[in-house]
Automatic annotation (TrEMBL):
Source organism of this protein record: Lynx canadensis (Canada lynx)
Key word Transferase present: yes
Entry GO MF terms: metal ion binding; prenyltransferase activity
The keyword Isomerase is annotated on this UniProt entry: no
Leader sequence residues: 1-17
GO cellular component annotations of the record: mitochondrion; transferase complex
Protein name: Decaprenyl diphosphate synthase subunit 1
Similarity field: Belongs to the FPP/GGPP synthase family.
Matching Gene3D superfamilies: Farnesyl Diphosphate Synthase
């Protein structure tokens, strides 16, 4: 059931998440790898070029790959758990939803 909630949670925009520990960990990792990142975060990316530099830092880190790996792992777990439910159109839609989440571009 936890995997199902994770799958549905993937549909919620990241800025709705209330998990401060996750956000702080990601921020700390980026700030450690790229010290300038912390200053950009503190000034809320208000200077010209801040957003572009931050995007480059994120792409240079392994965060995107780690996120993709975790999404795949949790979606596969969700499908495994959902498959235990009685066959129904709703169950099939949830399984299809996991495929959509993994293959969407935005």
């Amino acid at each position: 059931m936890c995997a199902l909630f994770f799958l549905l949670g993937l549909l919620i925009p990241w800025w709705w998440l209330q998990d401060n520990n996750f956000r702080l960990t990601a921020r700390e990792k980026l700030a450690t790898a790229f010290p300038e990142m912390n200053a950009m975060i503190m000034r809320r990316f208000s200077l010209p070029g801040d957003v572009d530099r931050a995007q480059q830092y994120v792409l240079q880190s392994d965060g995107v790959q780690q996120t993709t790996y975790l999404a795949q792992r949790y979606c596969h777990e969700a499908v495994r758990e959902i498959s235990k439910l009685r066959p129904s159109p709703e169950r099939d839609a949830l399984i299809q939803l996991s495929e959509i989440v993994l293959t969407r571009d935005k």
